[in-house]
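Per your request, structure below.
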């Protein structure tokens, strides 16, 4: 018969945990600690319990009282709290501090360190009842994977988070990252599906008007825009902009201005997009999130290149600033590569062909990770070949870009690429090939190409 030993008084939280803990979980923890300590059941039982009783505890068939748990915990080099909750308060505080370090590393551009720290916390927190700690570690790990360019692995982790309770603080951040990762991977259908699914859950909870809710809507709009559904993207952004005005949040307003600038650019009104991007930049200067600021500087540089009167020198300055900020932020290698492509394009316009080509070659490996990035690289390679007078190579690169875009359903972008190719061929005097490219542009938009002469009368 065992005797009761241990403390005279026990924390009420632990007392409650001892009455409700899943006996199989408790048994597993005791058995795992005993095996790790190289201890037999007899040595663990001592004179306080029989070996058979310890065996039944480990099998999840007995609920020991707190006094016996205290004795067992002492022999195992643990605490009652660790047996019941899975981790002590002090250890939990240490792990939260480690996560703070991981988050800081990620925001500072050190994704490998962030990944390792978050993974260590996950290993240490395995089996604990602190779901918040685990979710936070999974989110940081997933964002680190995204930053490293491992989009598929990031998506798997983020899908698990998104399937959890949407009230959790990490949920909306995971939803935004998931939509973005699908978009960056070129899976535009899943990007829009995931974004719509998550935004609907936020609406059910009346959380779609928060900072994070507006950011999710804006990210979703970007995916629709890439897919070619510009009208729906604009509708989403208009609703988000209205909510941002009501919220009076600099971050939310910046997101609205940012996307308004992108859509102006997509409509061919780049000169109107530039001041909107600058307004967004002014709002984000006080935000403290280097990633948002860097992406906006990068976007502004791209607008300056696409303007009716391109300013490659100013664009280069903005893109170089973005490159530095991206290095010191949680930006992914893919985002950095997009900025490098734009920077190479500014060099090309400034006449630094060799520098442009060298920079493009330097990001070739990262281009294989994201179809939309690969398409942009192929386009730039075609532009470089055209400047060098290599028409066949230019045509081949343009066609590579078109095929990549068509394969991921980016029909609007593919149509634009056909137009660019047609313009290049027309400039080279290849009118038949140019007309063929223009017809392909029309086909990519989903319109039928009529054989009826323009102006003919219907009968």
């Amino acid at each position: 018969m065992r005797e009761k030993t241990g403390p005279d008084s026990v924390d009420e939280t632990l007392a409650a945990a001892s009455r409700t803990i899943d006996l199989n979980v408790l048994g597993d923890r005791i058995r795992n600690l005993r095996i790790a300590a190289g201890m037999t059941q007899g040595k663990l039982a001592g004179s306080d319990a029989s070996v058979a009783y310890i065996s039944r505890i480990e099998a999840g068939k007995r609920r020991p009282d707190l006094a016996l748990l205290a004795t067992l915990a002492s022999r195992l080099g643990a605490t009652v709290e660790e047996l019941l909750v899975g981790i002590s308060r002090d250890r939990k505080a240490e792990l939260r501090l480690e996560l703070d370090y991981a988050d800081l590393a990620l925001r500072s551009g050190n994704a490998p360190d962030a990944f390792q720290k978050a993974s260590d916390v996950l290993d240490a927190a395995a089996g604990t009842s602190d779901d918040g700690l685990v979710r936070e570690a999974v989110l940081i790990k997933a964002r680190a994977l995204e930053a490293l360019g491992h989009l598929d692995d990031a998506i798997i982790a983020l899908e698990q988070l998104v399937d959890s309770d949407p009230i959790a603080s990490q949920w909306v951040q995971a939803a935004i990252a998931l939509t973005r990762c699908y978009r960056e991977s070129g899976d535009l259908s899943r990007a829009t599906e995931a974004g719509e699914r998550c935004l609907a859950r936020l609406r059910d909870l009346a959380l779609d008007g928060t900072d994070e809710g507006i950011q999710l809507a804006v990210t979703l709009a970007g995916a629709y825009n890439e897919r070619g559904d510009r009208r729906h993207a604009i509708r989403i952004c208009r609703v988000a902009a209205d909510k941002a005005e009501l919220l009076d949040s600099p971050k939310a307003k910046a997101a609205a201005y940012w996307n308004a600038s992108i859509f102006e650019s997509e409509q061919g009104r780049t000169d109107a997009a530039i001041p909107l991007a600058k307004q967004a930049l002014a709002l984000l200067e006080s935000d403290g999130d280097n990633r948002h600021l860097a992406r906006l500087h990068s976007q502004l540089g791209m607008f300056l290149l696409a303007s009716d009167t391109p300013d490659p020198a100013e664009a280069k300055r903005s893109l170089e600033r973005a490159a530095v900020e991206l290095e010191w932020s949680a930006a992914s290698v893919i985002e950095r590569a997009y900025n490098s492509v734009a920077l190479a394009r500014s060099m090309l316009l400034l006449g630094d062909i060799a520098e442009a080509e060298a920079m493009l070659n330097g990001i070739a490996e990262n281009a294989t990770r994201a179809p939309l990035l690969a398409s942009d690289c192929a386009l730039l390679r075609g532009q470089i070949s055209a400047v060098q007078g290599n028409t066949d190579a230019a045509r081949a690169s343009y066609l590579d870009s078109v095929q990549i875009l068509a394969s991921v359903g980016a029909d609007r972008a593919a149509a634009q690429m056909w137009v660019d190719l047609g313009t290049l061929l027309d400039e080279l005097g290849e009118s038949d090939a140019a007309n063929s490219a223009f017809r392909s542009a029309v086909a990519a938009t989903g319109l039928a190409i009529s054989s009826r002469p323009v102006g003919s009368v219907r009968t």
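The first helix runs from residue 12 to 20.

Regards,
D.
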